[in-house]
Structure formats: C-alpha cells, structure tokens
Amino acid sequence: MELLKERIRRDGKVRGTGVLKVDSFLNHQIDVELLGEIGKEFRRRFEGCGINKILTIEASGIGVACIVAQHFDNCPVIFAKKNQTKNIAGDVYTSKVESFTHGRIYDIILSKEYLGTEDKVLIIDDFLANGAALEGLIRLVKDAGAEIAGAGIVVEKAFQPGGDLIRGMGIRVESLARVQSLSEEDGVTFVEN
Ligand code: 5GP
What we know:
globular, single chain, eight-stranded mixed beta sheet, Rossmann fold, 10 strands
C-alpha cells in the first residue's frame, strides 16, 4: 500500500534494535484518515470471505481493528487482554505470548462468550515480527472452534521469521507494508511486490 509506505518513509523512526517507531501516526498519535484507507485496503483484500468478527490484541491493535471493522459492515471487534496475573477467572480461552518489544512472556485471555464455532475471524495487528502475538491469537481462535479467514497486518518486518511461520501454518497473511530492512543510517526499505 503505497500511501502507507510513503508515510513510514516520511515519519517512521528507526531504533537501533530493529524496531520501527510509528508513534506519530499509528502507535501513539493516530491518523484516523490513514486508518480509514487501511480499512478500505483490508476490505478489498478480504472481500467476500464472510468475515463476521475481528480479533486483535491490546493495546495498539485496538484502534486499527475498530476502523477496519467499519469496512466490514461494522462487525464486532474483540481484543485479547494481556493478563499478568495467574488468577484467570471464569470462562476464558488463554494462550501465552512472548513479547518482542518487552522481552517477557505474558498470558492473553479472551472470554468464551465472544467467540465460537459460528464465527469467521479476521485477525488484525499493527506489526508482525517474530509472530508470537499472531500465533497466540490463532491459538485462541482454534480453541474457540472458529474459522480464521486470515490475518491483516499493517507493517510486517519481513526480515524477522513471523511471516514465514504463520504462512507456513496455512494461514493467509496480508501485510500492507513489508519492511525488508531497517537502519538508522539508511532508513527503511520495503520488499518489492
Ligand atoms: P511479534 O509477536 O510478531 O514478535 O511482535 C508483534 C508485536 O510486537 C506487535 O503487536 C507490536 O505491538 C510489537 N512490535 C514488534 N515489532 C515492532 C516494531 O518494530 N515497532 C513497533 N512499534 N512495535 C513492534
């Protein structure tokens, strides 16, 4: 998606450890107009897939997912909650995720009330790096017996293994910008497509 790539080239900031900061339009301040275009693009790519729910993970996926949902007939958005305590109460699906940005393991939980066998799910997230967050979300959907239409990712860091891992599981992954390299000196390059 050219508009997104241009924005990343212009406003993205590379941090030494292979991290791309997009705080000025996606992760802190949010450009709602850009999210609208992102929503349209995911709609175009997943048109006709029968998606009736969108699943993401707190916190940074929520804003994107809500705007994307407006392009999928205002279907409900569910976000998996990050839970640091061991006291998981009630009827929930749980899964463990190793955080790329914080380097620790945490549980994600999702109430059984909101996902079941009748659902066809589009998973949305802002970044795909090692694939741990997406893998955790996929496990929740499988536990619920729901169907996965695919994953819509805003920025895939294609030099990390997550994309291959998830596609290797037979899951359709659509990424709007695929980053080939990040460097503080040379900036961001994208995979040609
Ligand atoms: P993964 O689980 O695929 O390794 O990492 C995905 C999660 O880590 C995303 O939900 C995102 O919040 C965060 N993340 C990974 N890499 C980056 C990055 O380069 N920049 C930002 N802003 N977040 C990232």
